[in-house]
Amino acid sequence: MTKSTMVKAHSGEIPRHNPCAQCGTPIAQPDWIEPGEGRVSYLWTCHACNYRFEAVAIFDEMPIAHPPLAA
Prior knowledge:
Radius of gyration: 16 Å
Mean pLDDT: 79
Order of helices and strands: HEEEEE
Shape: elongated
Helix content: under 10%
Low-confidence stretches: 1-11
Strand order of the largest sheet: 3-4-5
């Protein structure tokens, strides 16, 4: 999946203006978004100080309803 596809898939949930973990400058949007089970990872790059860092959002897991294996 390309970066643009990944961003479009989560466009309603993208965090904006996250402060840089090193210098505090707001970053418009993450460079990369990687969803996983119960979490979403965001890769950020600060263009003011060139610092790169990852932030992870962890969600409460909801029970997954499994379809029957045989009818």
